[in-house]
Write a structure and sequence with these properties.
Distance between the termini: 33 Å
Largest sheet: none
Radius of gyration: 25 Å
Shape: globular
Structural class: mainly alpha
Number of strands: 0
Order of helices and strands: HHHHHHHHHHH
Number of helices: 11
């Protein structure tokens, strides 16, 4: 084949197939992202579906249990909307209206300059800080605005909101039969056992990760809302909602939430912005070293440097969605690598014990 020996031909063919697969993934990226979010939503409500199944007659089956859970979720959303929806909408609307002016003042360093002058700083030191802010604030604001715009554009279509629960319904309904059919296609017992181990580990990983993210996001929203109400911070519910949503983006999300909160406080003339900085730092430590280990347990087991690299790479490849998917993808790849390596190590003693012909 093209004047290549058999081994070189196999390597060339493998590279071409891999490149074609990557190209197909890129072409179908929007559909695949829709499937991924549907999968995450299915993992989120799966425990509730199981509970509903236990409380319903066996003849009703899982579809009825899924429908009951969807109805309860809809009622819960309506209740939350009636409780905080009006205030949240008003605060987010006002923040959106003031966002261009706030971005301009932050990029020019005017907000920082006003605060430092009120604190009695010397004019020379104030100019140095203002120059440093001007040098980097524009890049940070531009990236944040671009990321938010891309996310909103993707979520703007009503088809996303409609199709995620639709796809999740079929995932919950047919996932187990589909897994059994895939299992039946694998003929070699060793490969079948490897597939089962990988599927089980990834299943547990995704279930724990998705539910942990939702819980951490809700904890952030509740704690930040209460703290901002007590401290008299402007737009308490809106800022807490932004922080809760950004909790889904590893590393970058909490950092961006802190910058937004402090910037809004400075722009609004809040009297104690440094207390907000201290609160954000303390809360980050609580989330990283107390809440996250308790909620996620030992399901991820990734080195912090690997997480940072994955988040940066995911942001370069897929923007905010890439950041969101970076950690579970890296953790899943780690599971596959460990299982395959363990399978090969178990295979070698058996092969060495076979007598030569």
């Amino acid at each position: 084949m093209f004047f290549l020996d058999a081994r070189a031909a196999r390597v060339t063919w493998t590279v071409l197939v891999f490149a074609a697969a990557l190209g197909l993934v890129y072409l179908l990226r929007k559909l695949l992202l829709l499937f991924v979010f549907s999968l995450f939503f299915a993992y989120l409500i799966f425990p509730m579906v199981r509970m509903a199944e236990r409380g319903l007659p066996r003849r009703s089956g899982r579809p009825l249990a899924i429908g009951v859970v969807y109805l309860l979720l809809l009622l819960a959303l309506l209740g939350v909307g009636l409780g905080v929806g009006q205030r949240l909408t008003e605060e987010v609307t006002r923040l959106t209206e003031k966002a261009p002016q706030m971005s301009q003042q932050l990029a020019s360093g005017q907000i920082i300059t006003d605060v430092l002058q009120k604190r009695g700083w010397e004019s020379g030191r104030v100019r140095q800080v203002e120059g440093a802010v001007r040098a980097h604030a524009g890049q940070i604001i531009g990236y944040v605005q671009g990321a938010l715009a891309a996310t909103l554009r993707w979520l703007a279509g009503a088809w996303v909101i409609v199709l995620v629960p639709v796809f999740a319904f079929f995932i919950l309904k047919d996932a187990e039969p589909a897994a059994a059919e895939i299992d039946g296609l694998i003929e070699a017992p060793r490969h079948r056992e490897l597939w089962r181990d990988i599927a089980e580990d990834v299943h547990l990983l995704l279930a724990k990760y998705v539910r942990a993210l939702i819980l951490l996001s809700l904890i952030t929203f509740v704690v930040w809302s209460a703290a901002f109400f007590l401290a008299g911070v402007p737009y308490p519910v809106g800022l807490a909602a932004i922080a809760g949503i950004l909790e889904f983006l590893p590393i970058v999300g909490p950092l961006t939430a802190g910058v937004i909160v402090v910037s809004v406080a400075l722009f609004s003339g809040y009297a104690h912005p440094w207390l907000l900085v201290a609160f954000v730092l303390v809360w980050r430590g609580i989330q990283d070293y107390v809440s996250s280990p308790l909620v996620m347990g030992r399901g991820i087991e990734l080195h912090p440097a690997v997480v940072i690299f994955g988040v940066i790479a995911g942001g370069e490849i897929g923007g905010p969605v890439g950041m969101f998917l970076s950690v579970p993808v890296l953790a899943a790849l780690r599971i596959v690598w460990r299982r395959v390596r363990a399978s090969r190590s178990d295979m070698r003693p058996e092969e060495s014990s076979v007598p030569a012909a």
